[in-house]
Design a protein that fits this description.
alpha/beta; 13 helices; globular; binds S-adenosyl-L-homocysteine; binds iron/sulfur cluster
Length: 387
């Protein structure tokens, strides 16, 4: 028997394990080296379907296309911004759920070489319900599978984007800062990280991967044990429980000091610097008192603060802190010896904050959105290949 008994759609190349692929090939009388050849071939940046596996016999290519899916993503719609340096995609999965991922390219500047960051989703929706976040406002859909997580990276790796080039040697980062709370889907996210690490696949080093969490403490402790080389970002957003209870409702379960202590454990055990994410909301969490509280939380251990100007969601009751307000906040932190950076506001014009493009397209087919975008003269997403 050459067919495997799968429930649901056939497995995608991103989720098939090499042993099952080898067994399937062996049952068809194929030589042992084929499994490696197919897996590696399907991860080459220029390959966009089984038909492109030119070193595999044509009949086998057809059989592969029948037995497996090339991607667990059924359709994608991408739009561009920042002169083609940023592109955002809404991906539709086999059951119609939609998720988002973003590609950000940073050209070489001075001594810094060119780098690429891909921001991916870990869940369709999110149950944490942070009130400033479009994903949180839309509620929870379902967990993503490891394959669905990896396929977002493969989307930008494959034609027409080919954004990673040789993933094993390029300068790129993968950040779990799209839709969802990754540590509420830890098993599948950890498996996705291992798949991304796999040298037979993309071979992306763990040090190039960042998991951002709203503060799921047991998940942080699992990262220490299971993925100590992956970077950790903690979405803090407030330095008092009173305010954080409102901004990051999961704080009622794991309050500020508990989360900070988990971050300290992570940095002590792994030797890695933790990033404290802090979205700047005008008049709410950008006060001098909040800044002083943040100084106390951030001092004395290996962390740095990353300030993110709020990207207001449609109908939001809040707006982002002004440049002057951010500068003042930065000064309070810096003068107290806390390392602080301000994140650039990439992709504002394409609703690049988590969950926003998805919300805008809700109820429309991606094909319809593509056509409407073209008619309205929306900024086309510029493929990276050959750039
Ligand atoms: N759930 C995880 C990861 C996804 S959200 C987490 O919360 O960390 C990734 C980051 O985007 C978080 O720091 C989140 O607070 C931030 N974010 C969400 N909505 C935003 C908005 N409207 N403007 C700016 N940052 C936002
Ligand atoms: Fe979920 Fe993160 Fe959005 Fe909060 S900010 S609702 S945790 S995705």
């Amino acid at each position: 028997m050459t067919e495997l008994a799968f429930v649901g759609p056939p497995p995608a190349i991103s989720e098939i394990d090499p042993a099952s692929l080898a067994a399937w090939l062996q049952a068809r009388g194929e030589p042992a080296y084929r499994a490696d050849q197919v897996l590696r071939g399907a991860h080459r940046p220029e390959v966009s379907s089984f038909a492109d596996l030119s070193d595999v016999p044509a009949t086998l290519r057809e059989a592969l296309a029948e037995a497996f899916r090339f991607s667990s993503i059924r359709d994608s719609h991408a739009i561009g911004a920042d002169g083609g340096l940023t592109a955002k995609a809404v991906h539709e999965l086999a059951d119609g759920q939609r998720i988002e991922s973003v590609l950000m390219r940073y050209p070489a500047r001075g001594a810094a070489s060119e780098r690429t960051t891909i921001c991916i989703s870990s869940q369709a929706g999110c149950a944490v319900a942070c009130p400033f976040c479009a994903t949180g406002q839309a509620g929870f859909g379902r967990q993503l599978t490891p394959g669905e997580i990896v396929d977002q990276v493969l989307h930008w790796h494959r034609p027409p984007w080919q954004a990673l080039g040789d993933a094993a040697t390029g300068h790129y980062n993968i950040v779990f800062m799209g839709m969802g709370e990754p540590l509420n889907n830890a098993d599948r996210v950890f498996e996705a990280v291992r798949l991304l690490n796999d040298p037979q696949r993309l071979g992306i080093g763990a040090r190039h991967i960042t998991v951002s969490t709203s503060g799921v403490v047991p998940g942080i402790d699992r990262m220490i044990e299971e993925l100590p080389q992956v970077n950790l970002a903690l979405s803090l957003h407030a330095s008092t429980d009173e305010l954080r209870d409102e901004l990051v409702p999961i704080n009622r379960k794991w309050p500020v000091v508990t989360v900070i202590n988990a971050g300290r454990r992570f940095s002590e055990r792994t030797g890695r610097r933790v990033s404290l994410e802090y979205v700047m909301i005008d008049g709410l969490n950008d006060t001098d008192a909040q800044a002083s509280g943040l100084v106390e939380l951030a001092r004395g251990w290996r962390c740095h603060v990353n300030l993110i100007p709020l990207n207001p969601t449609p109908g939001s009751r809040w707006s982002g802190t002004s440049a002057a307000g951010i500068a003042r906040f930065v000064e309070i932190l810096r003068s107290a010896g806390v390392t602080v950076t301000v994140r650039d506001t990439r992709g504002r014009e394409i609703e690049a904050a988590c969950g926003q493009l998805h919300a805008q397209l809700s109820g429309r087919s991606l094909r319809e959105a593509r056509n409407a975008g073209a008619a309205a003269g929306a900024v086309p997403a510029v493929p990276v290949a050959g750039a």
